[in-house]
């Protein structure tokens, strides 16, 4: 008779790329506590490529559910498949009821998560957030221990990219792997209020290319960011060194290009947190969101915020109609901070 398979850990991913990155230290803590236990991640397809760049993940399972739908029958069927994989613990990172249902239906005995929406019984190791809320890295990392304050500062998020993946992404994007690459992320999924103006990104590109003519500038983003990236490229005067790659790379390819970059300039977005986890120099632009809540954490980073009295409002559109928190961040200021990052020694 063959021996029973060892128990596994299931982690249910958040729906946002940046949150997935900031949850990675939880994996580091779980791996340290149970070094021989396989860890699987159940993630939405748009977020799955991020988890595949994490050394602690054994397998990424993609959720088959439609966004926003309960789909109770489908969740029951999928839970039966999970039951057969032999999980003894599940960490439920989304705060919704429908994701807490999955490990309960799968009969996973230890189900860890935050209180969320009506989840008593579904979550049986219940955490509650602090007031005011913790930074996101600490928020997720706290799930590794008993409910209560996190005992020590969590590790930093870390992603890894193989050289072959970088070379393939450069070739696919038409970039010269031998020339320096600066990455801009002008989009922001949350809303227009978080976006630094396209004209400012274009002015920054001109300053960067004037300082180093061999430099390439890659504009990265999802298909939703194609228009704003095209606006940046047009405002930059159609320079051949400015490449609009929004919607033209997969997320895995975008991660690889960020890994190659000499530095990244980004709004508060998923690509910002990917750059931090790859330990690239990062100039992060904050307006309506709080730079202290989800800051960059690479060795060389700058969180740039005017910290106006009206910020952080955390609104998708500027409630005052002026967006001064982002428009007032001058390209010359960002270039100065970026120059400091590029010339500072690592560490």
Automatic annotation (TrEMBL):
GO terms for molecular function: ADP-heptose-lipopolysaccharide heptosyltransferase activity. Its EC number is 2.4.99.24. The keyword tRNA-binding does not apply. One of its GO terms (cellular component) is cytosol. SUPFAM superfamilies: UDP-Glycosyltransferase/glycogen phosphorylase (SSF53756). GO terms for biological process: lipopolysaccharide core region biosynthetic process. It catalyses: an L-alpha-D-Hep-(1->5)-[alpha-Kdo-(2->4)]-alpha-Kdo-(2->6)-lipid A + ADP-L-glycero-beta-D-manno-heptose = an L-alpha-D-Hep-(1->3)-L-alpha-D-Hep-(1->5)-[alpha-Kdo-(2->4)]-alpha-Kdo-(2->6)-lipid A + ADP + H(+). Keywords: Glycosyltransferase, Transferase. CDD domains: GT9_LPS_heptosyltransferase. InterPro entries: Glyco_trans_9, LPS_LOS_Heptosyltrfase, RfaF. The keyword Glycosyltransferase applies. It is an enzyme of class 2 (transferase). Belongs to the glycosyltransferase 9 family. PANTHER family: ADP-HEPTOSE--LPS HEPTOSYLTRANSFERASE 2, TETRAACYLDISACCHARIDE 4'-KINASE-RELATED. This is lipopolysaccharide heptosyltransferase II. It comes from Rugamonas rubra.
């Amino acid at each position: 008779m063959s021996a029973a398979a060892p128990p596994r850990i299931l982690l249910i991913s958040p729906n946002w790329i940046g949150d997935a990155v900031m949850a990675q230290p939880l994996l580091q803590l779980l791996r340290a506590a149970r070094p021989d236990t396989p860890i699987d991640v159940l993630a939405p397809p748009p977020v799955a490529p991020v988890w595949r760049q994490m050394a602690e993940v054994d397998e990424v399972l993609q959720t088959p559910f439609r966004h926003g739908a309960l789909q109770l029958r489908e969740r029951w069927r999928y839970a039966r498949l999970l039951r057969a994989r032999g999980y003894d613990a599940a960490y439920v990172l989304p705060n919704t009821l429908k994701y807490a249902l999955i490990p309960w239906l799968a009969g996973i005995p230890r189900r860890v998560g935050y209180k969320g929406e009506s989840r008593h019984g579904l979550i049986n190791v219940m955490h509650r957030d602090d007031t005011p809320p913790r930074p996101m890295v600490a928020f997720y990392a706290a799930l590794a221990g008993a409910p209560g304050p996190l005992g020590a500062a969590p590790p930093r998020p870390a992603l890894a990219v193989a050289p072959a993946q970088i070379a393939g992404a450069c070739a696919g994007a038409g970039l010269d792997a031998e020339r320096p690459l600066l990455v801009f992320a002008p989009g922001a999924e949350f809303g227009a209020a978080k976006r630094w103006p396209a004209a400012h990104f274009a002015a920054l590109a001109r300053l960067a290319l004037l300082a180093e003519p061999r430099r390439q500038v890659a504009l990265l983003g999802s298909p939703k960011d194609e228009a704003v990236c095209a606006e940046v490229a047009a405002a930059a005067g159609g320079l051949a060194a400015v490449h609009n790659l929004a919607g033209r790379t997969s997320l895995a390819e975008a991660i690889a290009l960020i890994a190659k970059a000499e530095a990244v300039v980004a709004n508060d977005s998923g690509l910002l947190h990917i750059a931090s986890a790859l330990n690239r120099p990062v100039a992060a632009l904050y307006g309506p969101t709080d730079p202290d809540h989800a800051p960059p954490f690479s060795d060389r980073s700058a969180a740039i915020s005017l910290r106006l009295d009206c910020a952080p409002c955390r609104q998708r559109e500027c409630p005052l109609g002026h967006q001064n928190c982002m428009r007032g961040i001058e390209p010359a200021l960002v270039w100065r901070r970026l120059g400091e990052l590029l010339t500072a020694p690592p560490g």
